[in-house]
């Protein structure tokens, strides 16, 4: 390939890129984003392979084959579910990730400073960042027993893991067909508040056991989940640690008072809220279900470890 000229006159290196498009984005307002990304990158002279499959399982398989060819970047078009797919394909490899957010929550993009409400701006940022080195961030590795196969399994997450009320809300929201967008989470919160009760846990934080009941247990590598709920507002994606949020049992009225503060990230000042910064955590519970980056892992127990520098990603430093 020959060098290309960027629109500001800078000489660019043509790259071999893979673009994976969310299978659920075939219809609606996001349907044009994937093709626009592919068209833009090809117009710039890059060698682009577009991955479009009818479901996530087939997209994962196509993505695995594409990553094995060691492209210059693996770009996902979609929300946090697509980031989850990419994290599980790319963690521990040298293939960097690019994100063009067009999903419901877009929490990973929010935390990384990628425009999450303006796809044109996100595409422009990506094309600029592709000409420089990617940054390196941490990822969480989850070890668990698959509740369908009974086999020991491993999953990765880049953003947040949920194992309390937030996971219950995720479970409800993922079953809802309407509405689309962040309001789906808000409605799911209201519905689950009617059944609100604390969950008993045994947590092991860097080897130290903690028996507790809690309303909310979240493990953050990133800041937010659910479309902007800043559950772990002080988390950093590159500090080699995970922030574990534990909210003590609250009455429904108390919970209703504190929960809106989660959207602003001001809930940490409440004495019933604790954050533990750790490298490893085990979550045990008879009833808790676990989600990571909005995708269902399954019932507890799970063992979580932060892996520093596991992912390379095109995002602002």
UniProtKB/TrEMBL annotation:
Phylogenetic classification of the source organism: Bacteria, Bacillati, Actinomycetota, Actinomycetes, Micrococcales
SMART domains: DAGKc (SM00046)
Swiss-Prot/TrEMBL GO biological process terms: phospholipid biosynthetic process
PROSITE patterns: DAGK
InterPro entries per the UniProt record, alphabetical: ATP-NAD_kinase_N (IPR017438), Diacylglycerol_kinase_cat_dom (IPR001206), Lipid_Phosphate_FormReg (IPR050187), NAD/diacylglycerol_kinase_sf (IPR016064), YegS/DAGK_C (IPR045540)
Name used for this protein in its record: Diacylglycerol kinase
Domain DAGKc: 12-147
Domain of life, source organism: Bacteria
Family: Belongs to the diacylglycerol/lipid kinase family.
Gene3D superfamilies referenced in this protein's UniProt entry, alphabetically: 2.60.200.40, Probable inorganic polyphosphate/atp-NAD kinase, domain 1 (3.40.50.10330)
Keyword vocabulary terms for this entry: ATP-binding, Kinase, Lipid biosynthesis, Lipid metabolism, Nucleotide-binding, Phospholipid biosynthesis, Phospholipid metabolism, Transferase
Gene Ontology CC annotations of this record: plasma membrane
Cofactor(s) the protein requires to work: Mg(2+)
GO function terms (MF aspect): ATP binding; ATP-dependent diacylglycerol kinase activity
